[in-house]
Amino acid sequence: MGYELGRFEEAVDEELLCAICRMVLESPVQFRQCEHAFCDLCISEWLRHKNVCPIDRNLVIPTDLIPTPRILRNLLGKLSISCNNRELGCIERMPLESLHTHLDMCNFNPTRQVQCEDGCGCLIEVRHLSKHSCLSTLGSMVRERDENILKLSSQLKELKQVVSDQHHEILLVKEIVRNLRISSISAGLTTEAETDSVRERVKWLSSLSRARISRWGGMISTPDSVLQAMVKRALIDSGCPVELATQLISNSHERRWPPGLSMLETRQSNRHRYEEFVPKRIPTKQAIVLMACENEHMGEAMMRDPGFVIIFAHGVD
Amino acid sequence: MASLAIQRVKREFKEVVTSSEAENSQIKLEMVAENLKHLQGEIKGPPDTPFEGATFILDILIPDSYPFNPPKVKFATKIWHPNISSATGAICLDILKDQWAAAMTLRTVLLSIQALLASAEPDDPQDAVVAKQYKETPEIYHMTAKFWAEFFAGGNPSSYSADLRQKVKSLCDMGIQSLDAVRALSHYNWDATTAVESIFS
Fold it and tell me: Taking CB atoms and an 8 Å cutoff, what residues of chain B touch A47?
């Protein structure tokens, strides 16, 4: 909002008036396109209502506003204006450009700040000087600080609590990490043990030679325990892990053979598939071992996990 | 009321009073309330129009957000014009609505309204009945507008005004209010029978 016309000694040219407030331009800005100038505050308020120049109604945006040319500012700056505090008694006149410098020093300016000389040294607005009392000013300052200290110490307390909570959480996380590490180590050991047993098994199996069966009819479907014990001994001697040997021997009777071999009738109907087996010779014995890992192609009807043994009366090379 | 609005209206008031148009008594502005929020404008009917010689009173309300929003202006005097409601006096004029700009003043508003009286816009009507008459039977519109200006706004009497007054009087004799009589007669192109029917139906 501009300066009231009544404050100027001489008639002010129409060009120096804001078309919005109809007063002398204060902090003028103009549109880049049409160069129409307005008080900064007036045009900002207008642009909140409409995006057109208030004079020619062409479309504009706030960023089209630029400073007015120096010549306009100079013309405004030279206008002789009365002090804002004229009604309070200031009779001074000054060029508009030095109005602000004057107001900072004007003895009639009610908002001018002066330092109290009675002892407290506070900066006080002139209008409050007559009611000013150092004691009450200092008293309220002390109260304000006390309140601040209270506020800060309660903040400090809260922050301390936060820090302590976080410390506990960190301890908890550390404990979890430690446990995880231990369990992962033990898990790693188990894996190694398993790998070892697999390696042992593979090593044994690859040491066996492929058996050639000249007479499948020579198989003993119901070996007795003596025979089984003999073959088991041979298995272990060949390097088969004891645990595996026990499993394999327990699978050497037709009761424990896969369904396709467990009865005479099924054996007869599957006889044509015998040559598809990958049989391994159990050294020194008329016996073969059929491992599941080498005979996956036979299917469930002809194979049993982890494998089974067939003891022959004769016919194994 | 915002201080900018007060400041501006004060200055505009002075501007109108000292203007050349006021000197020629073409426009006039008066305060209704001391707070400058409610004003009364006055415009003369422009020459070579049905409104010549008549004086129209305008009711002006200044919003707190003035001059960022336009003043609210309507006719207090009855007028027969396509862009002014014959019932309420509401004005259809772009600068009083979306075409308002903060650089406009009460003086330019009064002059714009005066200019509107000289150049009606029947395609953007405020009063559909008047606009229809303006387009379909321009002579009857001219006669009616002139009669209204004479009857309500002190315009110069015309050669046919005695006839029209007689028609109004005949309706008044049936107990009809004169304003209602003028409205009904104007609405029905001065066909007294239809006008009476419209009132009593």
Answer: none
Give the residue numbers spanning the domain of A228.
Answer: 216-312
Domains of chain B in sequence order = 3-118 (3.10.110.10), 128-200 (no CATH)
Please say which residue of A93, A114, A135 terminates a domain. A114
CB A37 within 8 A of CB A70: no
For residue A88, tell me if it sits in a domain.
yes
Contacts with B102 from chain A: Cβ below 8 Å: 19-20, 42, 46, 54
Tally: H helices and E strands in chain A = 8, 11
Which helix (H) or strand (E) segment holds residue A151: the answer is helix A134-207
CATH assignment at residue A62: 3.30.40.10
Q: Which residues contact A59 (CB under 8 A, 6 or more apart)?
A: A51, A52
> Is A93 contained in some domain?
yes
Identify whether B172 is a catalytic site residue: no
| Helix, strand, coil distribution of chain A in percent, nearest 5 | 55, 15, 30
Please give the residue of chain B at the shortest CA–CA distance from A46.
Answer: B68
Q: Is residue A182 part of a domain?
A: no
What does residue B39 show for φ and ψ, rounded to 5 degrees? -120, 160
Interface of B with A in 59-88 (CB under 8 A): 65, 67-69
Distance in angstroms (rounded) separating the CA atoms of residues B145 and B82? 10
Partner residue opposite A20 with nearest CB, options B3, B69, B102:
B102
Residue of B nearest to A2 (CA): B4
Pairwise CB contact (< 8 Å): B101 & A23: no
pLDDT in tens, chain B (201 residues): 468 888 889 888 888 888 888 888 789 998 887 778 899 999 999 999 999 999 999 999 999 999 999 999 999 999 999 999 999 999 999 999 989 999 999 999 999 999 999 999 999 899 999 999 999 999 999 999 999 999 999 888 888 888 889 999 998 999 888 899 999 999 999 998 898 888 888
Final residue belonging to a domain, choices A114, A148, A169: A114
- Beta strands across the sheet bearing A287-291: A219-220, A307-312, A287-291, A280-281
ipTM tops 0.90: no
